[in-house]
Every structure is written in C-alpha cells, then in structure tokens.
Amino acid sequence: MDASTNSTMVEDAAGIVDVNTSPEYNASIVKKTKLHFTVEALLNDPILLDVTKNPTLSEVDTLINLELGGAMRICVLKLDGTSIDVAVMNCALVKDLKLAIKKKVKDMEETMMGHRQISCQPSLQLIPPHFQDESIRAD
C-alpha cells in the first residue's frame, strides 16, 4: 500500500478487511458505535429499570431526585388489590400526584393492550341513509 490512499483496516467477522474510505467517515462510524454501546449499557443497567421507554424530562428529573432524596415513591393500593408505584417530587401537589397516577395507568394499559385503534365503522352504519351525504357537526 502506498501512503497516498486513505486505506484503513477494519476487523469484522470474516477477519481483517481493507476499506477505502475517508477518515471523517470512519470517525463517524466509531462515534455511532460507541454511542450505541453506551445506550445499550445504560438500558441494561439495573438501576435504570424503572425508567419508562420514552421518558420525559420531568420523569428523568423526578427519578434523579428520587435517588438523591428529593423525591418520594408512593404506592397506591387499589380496591381490586393491585398497586401502582409512582414517584413524585417532595414539593409536589395533589394535582401532580393525580397526573402521575393517570400517566402510570395509561402506560400500563398501553403495555397490556398494545396500541389501541378505534374504528368508527360500526357507528357510521347506524346513520340513516338521508344523512350520509351531509357532514356531521358537533352540537
């Protein structure tokens, strides 16, 4: 190999392969690979098991404060015997607790039932034929 070519050696499953690419491209691949492994390690961390799949900034802030003592975990026991664990800040209001419970219940329903799709087809069949050409207005 001469020094004028931008040639790099990359090791893959088959062995060492010569790849002719620019150094910027290789640096980008290395950064993406490091980021991927870092995110994978964070997602598998046992401390972060209570983080939701798509956390908001306030949820992350609450969980950080929970670890530092600035928030509390509340267990709500329902009448059917099930319980819901939510975390709220120490300075949270009842309104904040209600919102956290509603969000937790919504997340639990979505994970149990998956994505819900509502169909209007059965209700549209109940509209009398002389109204089908007119637009439906809200009262």
Strand order of the largest sheet: 1-2
Counting copies of identical and different chains, the oligomeric state is single chain
Q: Per the principal axes of the C-alpha atoms, what is the gross shape?
A: extended
Give me the count of strands: 4
Q: Based on helices, strands and strand pairing, what is the structural class? A: alpha+beta
From the alpha carbons, calculate the radius of gyration and give it in angstroms.
27 Å
The end-to-end distance, rounded to whole angstroms, is 79 Å
Count the helices. How many?
4
Strand content: 15-25%
Strand count, sense and closure of the main sheet? 2 strands, antiparallel
Low-confidence stretches: 1-7
Assign a percent range to the helix content.
40-55%
Based on the model shown, name its key terms.
139 residues; alpha+beta; two-stranded antiparallel sheet; 4 helices; extended; U11/U12 small nuclear ribonucleoprotein 25 kDa protein; Ubiquitin-like_domsf; SNRNP25; ribonucleoprotein
